[in-house]
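Hello,

Our lab assistant flagged a job as stuck in the queue for most of the afternoon. It eventually completed. Since we weren't sure the result was trustworthy after the delay, we are filing this so someone can double-check. Below is the sequence as submitted and the structure that was eventually returned. Let us know if re-running is recommended.
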Amino acid sequence: MPVGPGATAILSSLLTGLLLMKKITSVCPYCGAGCKLKLVVDNNKIIRAEAADGVTNQNQLCLKGYYGWDFLNDTQLLTPRLKQPMIRYQKGGAFTPVSWQEAIRYTASKLREIKEKHGPRAIMTTGSSRGTGNETNYVMQSSPARC
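-- returned structure --
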């Protein structure tokens, strides 16, 4: 272990860096369990995930929770779409930034096309324990038929 003024400067720098990092409480994106976690952010980049005390995970995470967050820093695909809805109008085409109203309108029109062509049973939705309650699950299971 180094000692002296140089060591003090190094430790001071490390501690300052640790204090500037933000911890953002979130929910693991992988399964429907809804494990609570903290994303450690440095310089607007996620650098690691830590377990948080949630009802389902009780301060524990699986391997995907601990190590599977790196895709969140993907600036080519995911990150821009987290900030604004984007639509790919043609297969293989580029994503186009759109308003929320346009994203909802476009999605609804595509769902209507699928329903007209293949029937309401061609549309599937999924729910999870992270929903806002039983009412959300009811709406989710009944809405495809109403498109």
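-- support follow-up --
The delay was a queue issue, not a problem with the job. The result is valid. The helical segments are 5-20, 63-67, 78-83, 100-118, 134-146. The chain has a mean pLDDT of 80.
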